[in-house]
Amino acid sequence: MKRDMKQWMKDVVDAPVKRAVPVLSFPAIQLMGITVRELISSSDAQAKGMKMVADRVPTGASVSLMDLSVEAECFGSQIRFSDDEVPTVVGSVVSSLEEVEALSVPAVGAGRTGIYIEAIQKAVDLIQDRPVFAGVIGPFSLAGRLMDVTEAMIYCYEEPEMVAALLDKVTDFLIAYCKAYKEVGANGVVMAEPLAGLLSPALAEEFSAPYVKRVVDAVQDDNFSVVYHNCGNAAIQMIDSILGTGAAMYHFGNAISMKEMLQHIPAGTIAMGNVDPAGQLRNGTPESVRAETLRIMGECCDHPNFVISSGCDIPPMSPWENIDAFFQAVDEFYQKK
């Protein structure tokens, strides 16, 4: 469903009570009684799962799977699948400039990208009371998976030409991928660039931000927003280059102080975060989730542009009692105001 996202963002900032926007999709498997493997293999299952989550909890937006293996698989990466964990990339595809130059940019629709695009197309028909965001990986995070995450940092120093050449290719693919989501009705994408969070601010400014900006410049408009996600502990130190990407909204992980981050975000720009998805929503208790949610909201909600969220993707097997406690805490906070 087409939506004026600039107006939606303004309305969110102006609203005294804001709906939470967690990255909540994989725990739909528990509501559906299926496995992660089944969810990632079916556009019907993904769309149905998004709808079930939307019906159960009052999110401000519906966010699709943050599956950071999908795009790498298209480029030839080996993927490890599991019934109860998010898929992961194994090994590397390229390790030299020659291999990068020989690497083909896959067509959008290759691998599971076709399934994920179809899922969003179906989800926007099912969910019309809030924006629907697709999930995509960021340029450096994709390049890092193709080079092997443990080697990517070293290549930035020792093989910068190779890294830049690979980034050019993955950025071209991501632009096409985001445009495909746009064409089927998504209101935007949540772009996960977690690997950039491991870079120094200078390297992030060289190897991440300019490529993210290329994607943003190519796809973002009044009806389609890019939400930039970085869960690294150096995100505050690299905030100038992050803001330079021009993304419409920003989402940060629990490795940083959301209170401190908000001091660097322009007043009219939405920033979201950052309840610990693993430590709290997956492995905490309803009581600890409530306490942490209320703590963060107490520190941050005096900023009208703050929206409470999970710090990253909520893991598949997170107890729904904890997820429900998160939303109950949000309600409790606003009722007391």
From TrEMBL:
Residues 30-332 form the Uroporphyrinogen decarboxylase (URO-D) domain. GO terms for biological process: porphyrin-containing compound biosynthetic process. The lineage of its organism: Bacteria, Bacillati, Bacillota, Clostridia, Eubacteriales. CDD domains: URO-D_like (cd03465). It comes from the Bacteria. It holds the Pfam family URO-D. InterPro entries: Methanogen_methyltrans, UROD/MetE-like_sf, Uroporphyrinogen_deCOase. One of its GO terms (molecular function) is uroporphyrinogen decarboxylase activity. This is Uroporphyrinogen decarboxylase family protein.
